[in-house]
Design brief:
It contains six helices and no strands. With 105 residues, it is mostly helical. The chain has one domain: SMc04008-like fold, CATH 1.10.3340. The longest helix has 21 residues.
């Protein structure tokens, strides 16, 4: 049986979206070698964007999360720890690309 997004009930669609989100977060946690600035330059979002969107969704439900708490949910560790383990110095070319293409979100 083939399903289309229109044929899924809301609960099933939410479950599938949540599973996909969890897989994305798990993948990003495994790929500490992928820098946030590179994600921003190539895809227009990064781990910090996901953390911000998560926090905004929580706030819309009346759940207070700090920036640090939402980042820890996405990174799987405190942000400062992730930075110390994984963040590298961006090249001048990467910084220039970021400045030219920085998303407005």
């Amino acid at each position: 049986m083939s399903s289309t997004p229109e044929s899924l009930d809301t609960a099933t669609q939410t479950e599938l979206e949540a599973a996909a989100f969890r897989q994305l977060v798990a993948h990003l946690r495994e790929r500490g070698d992928v820098q946030n600035i590179d994600l921003m330059n190539l895809a227009g979002f990064c781990r910090n964007c996901l953390a911000n969107w998560y926090r905004e969704a929580a706030e819309a439900k009346g759940i207070a999360l700090s920036k640090d708490e939402s980042r820890e949910i996405i990174y799987g560790m405190p942000y400062s720890e992730w930075q110390n383990r994984n963040q590298t110095e961006a090249s001048p070319e990467t910084l220039a690309a970021f400045a030219a293409n920085r998303p407005d979100h």
